[in-house]
Amino acid sequence: MRAVADSVLGRKGLTFSVEIARQGGKNELSAQLEVLLLTLFMAGGGNAVKCSPTFKPQTVISMMRLKERLNDVGYSNFWAPELGYMVRLGRARQIFLSAEESANVVGTTAHILLEVDESQDVSKEKYAKEFRPMGASTNVTTVLYGTAWDNSTLLEEVKQLNLELERKDGIKRHFRYDWQEVARYNPDYLHYVEGERARLGESHPLFQTQYCLRPIYGGGGLLNAGQQAQLQGTHERCRRPRKGGIYVAGIDLAGEAEQGEDALLRALKPGQDSTVVTIGELDFSACSEVAPLPRVIIVEHYWWTGWPHPALFPQLLDVLKNVWGVRRAVVDATGVGAGVASFLAHALGKPVVTPFLFTQASKSRLGFDLLAAINSGRVKMYAGDGSNEYREFWTEIGQARSHYRPNQTMNFYVDPAAGHDDFLSSLALLVEAAKYTPRSARGHVRGDC
Fold this sequence. Notes:
17 strands; 15 helices; eight-stranded mixed beta sheet; Rossmann fold; six-stranded mixed beta sheet
């Protein structure tokens, strides 16, 4: 804050990058800085500009925080809102804008300060063409706040430039405070982040970027050797439910256009898609305040290749209802899968069947949840039994790839040239199905199947 104020008052026009771990105080720092500068410029006047990736909720939250801090210092009768996106104190204004691609922001001038909140999510093109020029005529000081994501973000680009400039002239432009630094001053924060580390796992992309502030680099293999070892369990595969067991299912449906000729089509036509059902037993014995979700013990796989949906439906229904009595089934309802999901919901009841529509955002969340379950040891695959299902499961796990996008989302998949992702998708849907809370969840010790 002192470094930014010194650049503003000295008209130095420096650009700063500030990385603070998630919930570590970025918005509070920004609001306090805005109060200071509005006070210093309330007589002389001028505009300070702050942008966020979205107007609602991010920009609105920033405005609310500034108003609260102005009230805290005794300015409640002096500041005034203007036009729904500005706060005026005397002759000085704090202007709040959206950095969404469609937002029209051209024409605004930043005299005092230009701030970019969550700058890892702001388009580099939008910043360069529409926000950076706001301070051209005033040599404005600029601050970019955020957390890490990948090596292609606006924040990472400015950070690397700042570090290079620091090496040349010794002027500190990049400030970094990871979760351990924040936790030194806030025991409650320490407790919270330790819970997140237990829930997500140390290597989870969200923990690494948002709390450790370490950028990820594009993508690669979805699971490393250590994570694959964590996924492997020692329990035996089960062909029937255990008395008292609570079971859920993840169902990845084959595309109708890829179905149709014969059984054993996987061997004859490697391009053929399959329907895979993964059955998991829930173990609530390890649930706690820090780790509230149950363990998911994979006990059985069903694998059909080349079956049209109408022929497959009766067998699916029998397996889910009469064999396992599943409490929850998450079903791929994308495209033609919507029909099967609807029929299953009608037959089993909507509380049991949850349709899952794959979109960029929903699949990203599914992938992050899958990584969290594996990293925390919550999901375990049955021991090797020499079956085709076991071999195919681990083939897909080994071939699974990840791709991280600039908007802090991810994709996980198997390259079609290498094989299929039916078992992988079914596993991810099983983890989603495991978000189930029975009326009376009790721990148990697994017995023989």
